[in-house]
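[09:14] KT: can someone run the structure on this one? pasting the chain below
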Amino acid sequence: MATTTGLIAQVNPISDLTDAVSYFIDAATVDPLSAILVVLGQLLFVVAFAVFGYLVLGSLVDFVIPESPGRSPPRRD
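[09:31] RB: done, structure tokens below
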């Protein structure tokens, strides 16, 4: 049975990051089409991340700032 300390010891984020970078470099340098596909994939990821971040920030601002600051307008009779 795996223990928590054993699983944590197997995770090395620095090594995983360097391995991922080398895998992307290997994939991008196979031919020009692969390089274009890697760049487009990263571009799609960045755009999706930016849109999601924009939506999250907008919802946080909407939550913090009231819809109508100040007092309500007087009622008409």
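[09:33] KT: thanks! The CA atoms of residues 22 and 28 lie 10 Å apart.
[09:34] RB: yep, looked fine to me
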